[in-house]
Amino acid sequence: MKKIKVIQQIAEQGVVAVLRADTAEDVVRMAEQAIEGGIKVIEITMTVPGALRAIETLAAKYSSTAKDPARFAIIGVGTVLDPETARAAILAGSEFVVGPSLNPETVMLCNRYRIPVMPGCMTIKEIQQALELGVDVVKLFPGNAFAPSMIKAIKGPLPQANIMPTGGVSLSNLGEWIKAGATAVGIGGDLTADAVKTGDYSIIAKKAAEYVAAFKAAKA
């Protein structure tokens, strides 16, 4: 049942922070600021050196089952290319797995351990394959290759597909994606770029709050 609850929580939260950094310590700081600002779904990409260490640190501090709101967050892993990486991340505490492409072996492993998996897809064929493999949420990636109207196009033949665009989602278009039918959205560089440039990580918390407000406004 935990898998179903985590998927529901991701849909309810609506905004996923996709975090990349040069060190595990930096990405942990980014995650803490994003959570402070209200983004409660955190994706640590495997491109971060020491990513598993960062996931362990965050999973020890936050949890999707935490009763204390300050400790509530869903920590996951991104840029997963193979089942070996997925399993390592799950053992480190990851509560969901995201990949840039559809890897059937990774999906099967995540299903085996009842962990939500969100593979990247670009075509109707890939999305159909993902659904047949038991994927609950499909990552539309790269999102900047499409307009929000792509959601409606996908849901024509596949109304049962839950779509999460990632890449190219910004404050200016988040509402369009949600109103078009996106289950959730992934936010990457736009959330952290200014903080990295200035060294002021509190900017992430401020931007996170703006994204959360934009999501709530779009849902309302």
Automatic annotation (TrEMBL):
The EC designation for this entry is: 4.1.2.14, 4.1.3.16
Q: Which domain of life is it from?
A: Bacteria
Q: What class of enzyme is it?
A: lyase
Q: Which UniProt keywords apply?
A: Lyase
Question: What is this protein identified as?
Answer: Bifunctional 2-keto-4-hydroxyglutarate aldolase/2-keto-3-deoxy-6-phosphogluconate aldolase
From what organism does this protein derive? Paenibacillus mesotrionivorans
